[in-house]
Amino acid sequence: MAKDTNYWLVKCEPHETSFDDLKVRPKRTGYWRGVRNYQARNFIRDGMNKGDLAFFYHSNCDEPGVAGIADIVKAGYPDPSQFDKKHRYYDEKATDDNPRWFSFDVKWKKKFKSFVHLADLKGNKKLNDMKVVQRGQRLSIQPVTKKEFDEVCKMGGV
After folding, report:
1. What gap in Å lies between CA 106 and CA 31, rounded to an integer?
2. Phi/psi of residue 130, each to 5°?
3. So what's the pLDDT on residue 102?
4. What are the backbone angles phi and psi of residue 133, rounded to the nearest 5°?
5. Is the CA virtual torsion 6, 9, 10, 16 positive or negative?
6. What percentage of the chain exceeds 70 in pLDDT?
7. Is 46 left (phi over 0), alpha (psi -120 to 50) or beta?
8. Residue 1 has what pLDDT?
9. Which of 31, 68, 74, 91 could link 82 by a cystine bridge, Cβ 3.0 to 4.6 Å?
């Protein structure tokens, strides 16, 4: 029996990795490290699955918004950076038996014909309930409904 696809919005600062950077990586794949918010961690650990789709969202930049779509190709595994004492995301409380933080891998799927700016998302009444447009929603990993996913894809020309 096939599982339902989940939809996500994953935020990345373009100076760290942009959607275009992801496209030129080997196998067009990148890994997500450093999520240090418990709610975002829970989404990764408990909700995200291989085969899900995600909006690749550029955040903390002059023009935040959605650049394109990525496939979740590996989800819900312990973030290796939490165990590396030299890494900025090291967590002394994390253990192999009880990891605190989780990672996932994404693969570049499709770039939008038109970048969908946050202002455009906020201006679309069909997206009023989308988490990214709501005041105070700063999570780097957010669930997206199928309806929201389809609407944003339409806005992006896909």
Report:
1. 6
2. -65, 130
3. 97
4. -90, -5
5. positive
6. 98
7. alpha
8. 45
9. 91
Q: Hey, where are the domains in the chain?
A: 7-155
Residue matched to tokens 């275009």: 20
CATH code of domain 7-155: 3.10.590.10
Computed on alpha carbons and rounded to an integer, the radius of gyration of the chain in Å comes to 16
What would the 3-class secondary structure string for the chain be?
Answer: CCCCCCEEEEEECCCCCCHHHHHHCHHHEEEECCCCCHHHHHHHHHHCCCCCEEEEEECCCCCCEEEEEEEEEEEEEECHHHHCCCCCCCCCCCCCCCCCCEEEEEEEEEEEEEEEEHHHHHHCHHHCCCHHHCCCCCCCEEEECHHHHHHHHHHCCC
- How far is the C-alpha of 50 from the C-alpha of 48, rounded, in Å? 7
Q: What is the pLDDT of residues 76-91, one digit of tens each?
A: 999 999 999 999 999 9
CA–CA separation, 133 and 118 (whole Å): 7
